[in-house]
Amino acid sequence: MNVDILYFASLREVLGQEKEAAELPETVRTVGDLRSWLAGRGGAWATALAPGKAVRAARNHAMVQAAEPLQAGDEVAFFPPVTGG
Fold this sequence. Notes:
alpha+beta, 5 strands, 27% strand, 5-stranded mixed sheet
């Protein structure tokens, strides 16, 4: 399954890219699986997307939880929580 992945704010800076297209293995079925798979790249990926790290996700422009299923062609965005001030 192919998906487009977007990274915003500090994630974009840490990971050194704003977007990518990815061919996912069959084991990646949910947004949470995708996050874990990306963290498995190691280095900055493991740090930025570590379990327990505050990272929000959206699927096709709608906020979602980790259990949200993925479909081919989805756009998934990861970003830190927004704070006001």
